Amino acid sequence: MSHVALLAIIPQHGLALWLTEHIRTTLDHLGLKHGSMAESVIYVGVIVAFALLLGWLVRRVALWLTRRIMRWRSTQIGNDLIHDHVLSRCSHVITPLVILALLPFAFDTQSSLLHLFRVAIYIYTIVAFAVAINAVIRFFWMRYNQRENTKNLALGGIRNLCTGIVWVIAVIVIGSIILDKSPVALLTGLGAFAAALMLIFKDTILGFVAGVQLSGNDMLRIGDWIVVPSTIANGIVVDMSLTAVKVQNWDNTIVTLPPYTLVSTSFQNWRGMSDSGYRLISRSVIFDVDSVVPCTDQMIQSVSTLPGMKEFIDKVKTSGPFYDPGVAVVNGTIQTNLGLLRAYLCYYLLHHPLIGTDQQILVNVKVPEGNGFPLQIYCYTTTAWTAYEAVQSEIFEHIAAVAPKFGLRLYNAPSGNDVKSLARNV
After folding, report:
1. What is the mean pLDDT of residues 116-128?
2. Helix (H) or strand (E) holding 304
3. What b-and-e string marks burial along 93-114, b requiring 16 or more CB atoms within 10 Å of the CB?
4. What is the pLDDT of residues 26-47, one digit of tens each?
5. Dist. CA 179–CA 246, nearest whole Å
6. Hey, where are the domains in the chain?
7. How far apart are CA 405 and CA 389, in angstroms?
8. Is the pTM here over 0.70, yes or no?
9. Residue 75: predicted pLDDT
10. For the chain, N or C: smaller number of CB within 10 Å?
């Protein structure tokens, strides 16, 4: 918008003539000449004071009306308008418009001082409009983010982009006013500096593109728990803008990452775990190889007193080994003590109150290592952190307690005391 177009929208009325007459009357009483610099200074001071007073009155009236409406109809919009100072910021445009409407009457149309004053007020007007527009943008963004953003998408970057565009346009218009050139001509001249501008705003441009990808593909939301292997980030996303993603780690430290880091590298998002309501337990316990032995009748008889084992043993003896493809079944053998333990642990997990029986449950032997036979527990439980750790600890404590009943020993690397004891026995 050029200064000519801006001047066209400013109303001019008889108030200026009324002010001029009273100022000249005051000058007559003081013995000052008409048309002097004193007359212009007094006039400018009066209209500035009048414009500030009018802006203040409009602001107070708008706030008063909003509060009255809130008393009649307690609306959240009214609360947000007051809390975010939207009305106050928008009312700032009144002051420069009033000054521009009355300023031409203070000077001769050819006065260079009038031109300087106009340029200053034009700049003030553009800045006031930019502040008002950004206040409105922030208000609508906040309303949408609170009420419509059900997926909690990171839209802060888009808001920052809109704010940046408003200020870029404001700077271009201000530059055109100062240089007395058309904004289009100024933009054409800036084309030569496009490479430099892209270099200066590289992070902002990359951040915006990455933010659009993250939000458009629903890769990241505020409140997600993420782990970025190439960094120390392991926690909750608390904020996301054009240039930074803030992650609050579990030790309450804040890690700041460029958005394009999350796009250019891989990261782990735990949102699916939170949405499903289940968290995976996948840990192993290792048994000594020498303790894994074939079952004897005496061993089978002794473990049949444990919950669920008699039914399992009788079923296997009657029908033979079976391999049920179900996701949550008792699975094991009666050939070895480790196979019996597998069956018992399946039964134990199926009857645990915090283990999801509609999810996969596995108790399986992994590839033997030099340390022994790893027995893996694979199941799902609650996502609550404290409960998750408690259930996981309870399961492996129970395994350590019940393993001797099956003749199994947990693997433990030899210590110095073991070596000394062996040397004494020798």
Report:
1. 83
2. none
3. bbbbbbbbbbbbbbbeeeeeeb
4. 655 555 555 555 556 666 676 6
5. 41
6. 3-151+159-198, 213-273, 277-406
7. 26
8. no
9. 62
10. C
